[in-house]
Write a structure and sequence with these properties.
Layout lengths: L1 H12 L3 H11 L6 E4 L4 E4 L4 E8 L5 E6 L2 E2 L6 E6 L2 E6 L8 E9 L2 E12 L2 H9 L3
Parallel strand pairs: 2-9
Antiparallel strand pairs: 1-3, 3-7, 4-5, 4-8, 6-7, 8-9
């Protein structure tokens, strides 16, 4: 039986990718991504550093992307996106009022995709703004 199965695997692996995927899916049921812990809403002051996180489970490999509104977020000098050991993280350095809004985490694998979202509210630092405006020049 093992020899026959080995021969079958060897024969299918020489066929196109669709046949191989079908064969493997007969033996391994893929688990679509799901969120064990969803993004929490956060309120921050302008200038604060903020971290949004979600915990994802499902069959590997899982890819994760973050979005603000309908825009995909890319790493830059103020934003860092990571996905390690099921933990999806978005770190924003020095948030501004314009950083506020709806953030979505999208997790995807061969079995499907799932998303969750949270709100970031950013408040201005009125005290420092007022004291700066009234300071003698």
């Amino acid at each position: 039986m093992l020899c026959a199965l080995s021969h079958l695997v060897q024969r299918i692996s020489w066929n196109d990718v669709a046949d191989e995927y079908f064969f493997l899916s007969l033996f391994f049921e893929l688990e679509p991504p799901s969120f064990v812990k969803k993004i929490e809403n956060v309120t921050a002051l302008a200038g604060d550093n903020v971290t949004l996180q979600a915990v994802v489970k499902g069959s590997e490999p899982i890819s994760v992307m973050w979005m603000k509104g309908k825009e995909i977020i890319q790493d830059d000098n103020k934003v860092r996106v990571t996905f390690e050991h099921g933990l999806a993280t978005l770190q924003i350095t020095g948030v501004q009022l314009s950083s506020g809004g709806k953030y979505t985490c999208v997790a995807e694998n061969d079995a499907g995709s799932q998303s969750c979202f949270g709100e970031l509210a950013v408040k201005g630092q009125w005290r420092s703004a007022i004291s700066s405006a009234w300071s003698p020049a």
